[in-house]
Amino acid sequence: MESPWLLEYLFFFLIRPLLAISFVVCFIALWWFLAWKLVLSHVPLVQEIFGLRKKTIIPKPESRGRISKFYKSITSQNPVPQW
User: Fold this and answer.
1) For the chain, what is the mean pLDDT?
2) Around Cβ 11, how many Cβ atoms within 10 Å?
């Protein structure tokens, strides 16, 4: 028959710390899950890091801005002679 002090020591040194650690881990996991669902899953940088969203590549048009239009107008007015 076991003595009551052995059960008290077992509870105090083994079971109680395990319960405390599991409580902290569950608390952190709950808040991480809530943060993930509410905020983090909508941040594009986090989506790219975890591979949740494929990056879409949009091709750039030939004449994007004023500079390319300017150089096109110059070459059309003064064609380069070909040798």
Assistant:
1) 79
2) 11
